[in-house]
TrEMBL record:
Domain of life: Bacteria
One Pfam family it belongs to: DUF2501
Keyword Signal: yes
Protein's name according to its UniProt entry: Alcohol dehydrogenase 15 kDa subunit
InterPro entries to which the protein is assigned, alphabetical: DUF2501
Segment forming the signal sequence: 1-26
Record keywords: Signal
Record keyword Signal present: yes
């Protein structure tokens, strides 16, 4: 007579063997990074983006990208909300990137997640820069937005 524990062990072994290839395949697939261009962001080691790369992206960013990044900066506490919100509100009103009909600009949405498009190249994520670079980049974003008002 075959013992119950042996049958259970064989069943458990068969289940593990059937699931193992699925688990291995899942480990090879990167999870999606977000909406829009966020899916195009390459895996970059956090903190590896240089100040030059980030500041250059900020300097060449289009208004919708700037508004979104400024929103990210406020939400991430790199800019003081009481000072930056009025600037962002005026900037959004001028650019109409967040219209009242809820049909906003995808660049603004991506920017709000910390993504910044760089002139036709793959977007960069501010999350891949050091906290000091992010803070300085946010100050540059605010200054640029103010200058465009």
């Amino acid at each position: 007579m075959v013992s119950f524990s042996r049958v259970l062990s064989a069943g458990a072994f068969a289940t593990i063997m059937a699931v193992a290839p699925l688990a291995a395949h899942a480990a090879e697939i990167s999870p999606p990074t977000g909406a829009g261009v966020a899916n195009q962001v390459e895996a970059i080691k956090p903190g590896s983006l240089s100040a030059e790369t980030v500041y250059s992206a900020v300097a060449s960013a289009k208004p919708a990208d700037l508004g979104g990044i400024m929103n990210y900066c406020i939400q991430s506490n790199y800019l003081t909300a009481s000072e930056a919100w009025p600037v962002l509100a005026a900037f959004n009103k001028k650019t109409n990137d967040v219209p009242s009909n809820q049909k906003g600009n995808m660049s603004y949405a991506d920017g709000s997640t910390g993504l910044l498009k760089v002139g036709g190249k793959a977007p960069i994520s501010l999350e891949d820069a050091s906290a000091d670079i992010r803070k300085q980049a946010c100050a540059k974003v605010e200054a640029r937005a103010k200058s465009m008002l």
